[in-house]
Write a structure and sequence with these properties.
InterPro entries: OMP/PagP_B-barrel
CATH class: Mainly Beta
CATH architecture: Beta Barrel
Helix content: under 10%
Order of helices and strands: HEEEEEEEEE
Largest sheet: 9 strands, antiparallel
Shape: elongated
Radius of gyration: 20 Å
CATH topology: Lipocalin
Number of domains: 1
Organism: Thiorhodococcus minor
Strand content: over 45%
Protein name: Outer membrane protein beta-barrel domain-containing protein
Structural class: mainly beta
């Protein structure tokens, strides 16, 4: 799939992270919604058109503990859960055969562990990232999430960041298979209070 095809197939999608800290303790939550849709006519003339629509909703509450904080470098170790809800619809329109709709949906949760941190490169510029892994065969065989990025502080309470995020999950249970990688540029604005 080309980069242009991704934008053609990507529907309203986004992510919203939340972080709260008190002393060395931290609580983070990450919410993601991704919707894609693709059409083809590869089964013609049996069916007129095939439309595949996939939506995923992911929520990840994570508790963490600050293990390093020297003024420039911070590192947190944490763990929590990643909750998945996915739905896939395959719509086959009328052709020589009657059209039909095939739907599959599944919801599950995985334990996750990992680390997050940041490094001040100057008073305004910073690097940040995280890496989490989970699943461990409990629901998914594996789930992983990696982010690396650079940010700029406009004020003590407002910053912007640009980075790259890679998320993978491989869940197979009975007749359900969800083996997906999502990756791309992530941008955002942070408001601290």
């Amino acid at each position: 799939m080309s980069f242009g095809d991704i934008f053609d197939d990507l529907k309203p999608s986004g992510m919203v992270p939340f972080n709260a800290t008190k002393g060395r303790l931290g609580l983070a939550a990450d919410f993601q919604y991704v919707e894609t849709e693709a059409e083809s006519r590869s089964l013609s003339p049996l069916f007129g058109r095939e439309t595949l629509r996939s939506t995923s909703l992911v929520a990840s509450p994570i508790a963490s503990y600050l293990v390093v904080d020297d003024g420039r470098l911070s590192l947190r170790l944490g763990g929590g859960a990643r909750l998945w809800s996915v739905e896939t619809d395959l719509r086959l329109s009328d052709g020589l055969l009657a059209g039909r709709l095939i739907t599959s949906d599944e919801t599950w949760g995985d334990p996750i562990i990992g680390a997050s941190g940041g490094l001040d490169l100057s008073p305004q510029v910073f690097a940040r990232g995280w890496a989490y892994v989970g699943g461990f065969g409990i629901a998914s065989d594996i789930t992983a999430d990696v982010f690396v990025g650079l940010g700029y502080r406009f004020t003590d309470t407002t910053s912007a960041s640009l980075g790259y995020r890679w998320v993978k999950v491989d869940c197979e249970e009975d007749d359900f298979l969800y083996d997906v990688r999502q990756a791309g540029i992530a941008t955002g604005v942070t408001f601290a209070f």
